[in-house]
Amino acid sequence: MGRFHRHDDGTAHAHDHEHPDDHEHDTGDHSGYATGGDRVEVLERIFDENDRTAAANRADFHAAGTRVVNLMSSPGAGKTTLLRETLARLAGELRLGIIEGDIETSLDADRLAGFGAEIALINTGNGFGGECHLDAPMVRSALPRLPLADLDLVLIENVGNLVCPAEFDVGEDARAMVYAVTEGEEKPLKYPVMFRTCGLVLVNKTDLLPYLDFDMDEFLGNLHKVSPAAEVLMVSARTGEGVGAWCDWLRAR
Amino acid sequence: MHELSICESIADITTRHAAGRTVVAINVRIGQLRQVVPDTLVYCWELVSADTPLAGSRISVEPVPARVRCRRCEAVTEIGDVPAFECRGCGGFDVEVVSGEEFLITSLELATEEAGA
Question: What is the ipTM of this complex?
């Protein structure tokens, strides 16, 4: 166990058929253990409960006329700085809400205070070192703390992580990710699910490019391999370059 | 560590389908594009199931490779270890994922009524 096995012919995978209800296996499971018991078919998606809650969140957002963007990145890519610049530009024009996911602290929420946005913090600490993502029930728990009917746009700042957040629909309308040029060109290949799931990739910290050996063409080529349709915006949250284009993207949601 | 919350979902589904019978094994189908580490899942299952009626049951993972179908040449190919969502046949990028996103409990192995009694 531990690796996905592959077959040379690419199609004749013994496990890759759906099991109709009247279909019974003659032998045990795939583990090699003799089970000697009864098998019951389940065929239930493990994310069903999350996805049902996400649908409820989405219905509430739509009923309130609020658009929702789920913003994801690795730790330190610049989500919070970008959000701060975003709030500074949009706060007078759009009524904004922020759902802030953070494992233990309110540090990020504190950095976003004072711009007139409604902020709901979700601490994801769970006794096991903290959840690495926001899921739909967590976001649902934050909704009573936001005046949704008074908001045009809610930005969800997910937990910094390139793996887990991509797996969880929380009821958003769109997903965007912040990628920093300090992270290396190969990130799309290492985290294809994250890069594929986001319609928009913000390439951040472009002000550092003169000091790095970063190969933008190689990065864009890798991104294209895993997500040919991704929209890309070059930004520097620090200098403000490209933040206007990001705000335009948000206005168009 | 989203395997932990995943295990909690698995426990809920399993408990409902087992309907009080003793669970020996839970067969889980996981696509390559689901970023679930099977070994971590098995480890977390021990944590989550301990001190519950599901203690002692094990998770058996059935992996499914990710494949794409090319809209241009119709070929179905795997995306490979270094993932590229392009057709291995003609090199086109207009592809749709046909497998690799599965994440479900397919079946449960239950102790026979006598053994579970």
Answer: 0.85
On the question of pLDDT at A12 being above 70, the answer is: no
Q: To the nearest whole angstrom, how far is the Cα of B115 from the nearest Cα of chain A?
A: 9
Q: CATH code for A48-251? A: 3.40.50.300
Q: What is the pLDDT of residues A106-116, one digit of tens each?
A: 888 888 888 88
Of B24, B64, B108, the CB nearest to A42: B108
β-pairing verdict for B67-70 and B95-99: antiparallel
Cα distances from A217 to residues A74, A185, B26, in angstroms, run 21, 9, 45
pTM metric for this prediction? 0.84
Please check whether residue A104 is in contact with residue A181, taking contact to mean a CB–CB distance below 8 angstroms: no
SS3 for A40-95, per residue?
EEEEEECCHHHHHHHHHHHHHHHHCCCEEEEEEECCCCCHHHHHHHHHHHHCCCCC
Written out in words, the top-level CATH class of the domain with range B2-65+99-111 is alpha beta
pLDDT 10s digits, B25-66: 999 999 999 988 888 999 999 999 999 999 999 999 999 999
Q: Which residues of B touch A15 (CB under 8 A)?
A: 29, 62, 64
Select the residue from B106, B108, B110, B113 to test the A interface by mutation, using most A Cβ atoms within 10 A.
Answer: B106
